[in-house]
Amino acid sequence: QVQLVESGGGLVQAGGSLRLSCAASGTILNINRMGWYRQAPGKQRELVAAMTTDGSTNYADSVKGRFTIYRHNAKNTVYLQMTNLKPEDTAVYYCNADVVVYLNNEYNYWGQGTQVTVSS
């Protein structure tokens, strides 16, 4: 069983910064891709940023230049450094990972989500 546990959400004023963390635990052989998604009220869940094991990244256009994703592979942890936050960044942020487990099977997992609220 694999679990993703997020932390670091909260309330911040516009222009402020937050760092989200997500740690994966369980019987893990490898994690190919880790990323962050978000879902605002009344909207669909969307990709914010993702990173593969070799360091390749992709970002939503709306966060480029403001958010940075990075990983600590040995700790099975992914981070999202968010700067210059805007009210439109308010959402529940979810960690997501493609995890290789027993017998080299890969499964996709989600965290429980962490709330980020940006006040104007």
Keywords, separated by commas or semicolons:
120 residues, mainly beta, four-stranded antiparallel β-sheet, 0% helix
Helix content: under 10%
Q: What gyration radius follows from the Cα positions, in whole Å?
A: 14 Å
Determine the strand fraction and express it as a percent band: over 45%
Q: List the helices and strands in order.
A: EEEEEEEEEEE
Per DSSP E runs of 2 or more residues, the count of β-strands stands at 11
Roughly what is the average pLDDT, rounded to an integer?
96
Structural category is mainly beta
Assembly type of the chains comes to: single chain
Q: Largest beta sheet, briefly?
A: 7 strands, mixed
